[in-house]
Amino acid sequence: MRALVIDDSRAMRRIVSGILIGLGYEVRDAGHGREGLDVLDEGWKPHLLCVDWNMPVMDGLQFVSAVRSNPAWRSVTIMMVTSESEHTQIVRALAAGAHEYVIKPFTADAIRDKLALLGLLPEEVPAGVPVPLRSSEQEVAL
Amino acid sequence: MKILIADDSRVMRQIVIRTLRQAGYDDHDIVEAEDGADALAKVGSEKPDLVLSDWNMPNMTGIECLEALRSSGSSVPFGFVTSEGSPEMREKAANAGALFLIAKPFTDDTFREHLDGVIA
Amino acid sequence: MTTMDTGERRRSSDVRPVITDLIDGATVLSIAEEAWIALVGEDEILVPIPGEPPVDIVSSWVDIVGPWTGSVVLTTGRGTAEELSRALLREAAPEVLEHEDVEDAFGEIANVVGGNVKAALPGPSGLSLPQVGNAPVVRNPVDVCRVDVVWRGEPVSISVQGALPPLPVPSPTRENEVPL
Q1: Of B48, B3, B53, the residue nearest B28 (C-alpha)
Q2: Which domain holds residue A107?
Q3: What CATH number has the domain bearing residue B42?
Q4: Which of A41, B35, B115, C59 has its CA 20 to 30 A from that of C174?
């Protein structure tokens, strides 16, 4: 499975990408919404988009709206990555067409659980087997 | 006594003032603040004897205001009047040094219950 | 740190609750009734029957973000929202109500109802500031608890509605189509 991680923070891109690669994803990343659209325009078809909210050039809301208005990208699942203080934004992002959200700081398990709900785990990791990622239980502090 | 009422809703400030009066606490000076930052500034300039504050406000929340007051050395009596009366909020309020938390919706009885002994 | 990934934890997180698992219409109604009595007036009765919906409607709502994520939305006719605002302001009501007064008063009712709904739900959750305008869309028809009442002869609806779309139905073909 393929995922596109869109975040203006390089550290955040690395963290999210690391978790997804650990789960078996093929990952590309982008620094803001416009760059994200460019990757999609190339014809690379991800199953999952992990999108930050506050970004320069094109923010998360604009990006989600752009993706949702294009029928070619209808089947992609969008997960917002946001911070705890942005309650109104979370509901607004979901209303714009996002499917799920995770709140920073999050654990690898939190992401895995949400992907399991969405049916987006590349291979079913059975209960009792740890995620193949050393920091799976560490809180990602950002 | 001088009472500072902090709420971003003008309507709610009026309802709090009205309820104070109905509960029998008239004859007090009322000062209004429209968010936590305004309340923090007015505790300094107006020197109120009691602060009644909402929790969720733009700029600075009620709990942030209380924490800022306590860390700056102010011990002004402080109580919440908020739509969020869950046990976790009450605990947070008490830990930060609030005297009480009145949950919205409230009546004049609720006010008397919490303010008896606080307002002279 | 080695935390065992127990089946218990996975089971609890494998389920996403819908609002009807967490709160019922009777609870929402009693929260609204209490808010009306305290804010609007002691004799203000909400009659739990659906009324004829008006054409020109306005909503006020707060968002709840936590184990359950969604909005608590009040919707009524524009005229009724003004009447509610006058009732809240009482003697302080100006002759001509400004849009700002209605936003403030109608929003505050949503804030009080929403804050009490939040307290009845599993936490910890966050609550947004009130908003007034066109209500957020219903994403998942199953994730809604709606109560219709009539106040002073006018219909008001109170909708506790989830913000997340329905989960995809698992299919053996591993098609990842998620409904909008």
Answers
A1: B3
A2: 18-117
A3: 3.40.50.2300
A4: A41
Kindly provide the ipTM of the predicted complex, given to two decimals. 0.84
For chain B, the domain total comes to: 1
Q: Is residue B120 a part of any domain in this protein? A: no
- Dist CA C156 CA C52 (whole Å): 10
Question: What DSSP letter does each residue of C122-160 carry, written as one string?
Answer: SS--EEPPPEEESPPPPS-TTSEEEEEEEETTEEEEEEE
Neighbours of chain C (3+ CB pairs under 8 A): A, B
Facing B105 at nearest CB: one of C35, C114, C123: C35
| C34/B105 CB distance under 8 A | yes
Instruction: Tell me: pLDDT of B73 over 70.
Output: yes
Task: Say whether C128 and A68 touch across the interface (CB within 8 A).
Answer: no
**How many domains does chain C fold into?**
1
Q: For residue C49, what pLDDT is reported?
A: 93
Does residue C38 lie within any of the structural domains?
yes
Nearest residue in chain B measured CA to CA from C123: B88
Chain A residues in contact with C165 by the CB 8 A cut-off are 94, 99
- Give the Cα separation of C130 and C62 in Å (integer): 5
Is residue C104 classed as helix, strand or coil in its secondary structure?
helix
Domain of B58 in residue numbering reads as 2-115
Domain around C120: 19-162
Chains contacting B (3+ CB pairs below 8 angstroms): C
CATH code for the domain in which residue C89 is found:
3.40.1550.10
Strand pairing report for A2-6 and A48-52? parallel
Interface check for A104 against chain C (CB to CB < 8 A): the answer is: no
